[in-house]
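One-letter codes give the sequence; each number marks local geometry. A record appears below:


***
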Amino acid sequence: SFTPIFEASTEYNKDIVSNVEPIPGSSVKRGTTITLFVSTGPPLVAVPALSGKTVEEARRLISEAGFLTGEEIGEHSDDVDSGIVINQNPRAGLNATAGQKISFTYSLGSDKVQVPSVIGNTRDYAKRQLENVDLLLGTVTERESSREIGTVIEQDPAPSTSLARRSRVNIVISKGEQKTIKQIVNLANYTVGITTDTVAVLISATLETGGAIYYDDVVQKDAVIDFDLFGYTGEKIVYEIRINGQKKDQINITFP
């Protein structure tokens, strides 16, 4: 007769005879019971707890328990420090077959970065600062300011704000303080040959520089008129002087 004994084995698959007693080839009496050792497959082992461990600790625990390391997946987390295991599969405490792969997810740290201060820097330098921390330059607007022309005077979000990577930071650039340049026009320089006592005078910016009208009136042909131009350092204005509808001059002004 045969007596089966079931036992775990790392060498033999489930339901395969792993050993016989007495050993094969032995002489035994008729009626002797033969013991068959039948494999139940590899032994079941409790899966170790990995959450809260470092990646290196997790690998060591997996190996010591007789398992293999499976996938190691990194993902960003605002709550778990970088390099710490967040979860695992199979779960901790489950009985699993030795040699099975244990996968786990570990933290890459927060996906957010602190917004640097770009106040006082140029637009290009501010853009580089933002890109260095994986942020993008957003809208750029200009505003009158006593600060140096071309420097950042405001930013949104504010410095030290936590922001998701690839987010945009908007900035405001100083265009300096508005300046005034007084213009004086002696009409006598443009009315030679005109027989009437009065003339229609139109002084306006060209369409390319805004088309603003600075003077529009009927005055004595030898009058001296004045008007103000407003602008910012580096700004250019081109205006025309027309007498009785005819263009007499074109003046180019660049604000110092």
Notes: The chain has a mean pLDDT of 92. The longest strand covers residues 246-254.
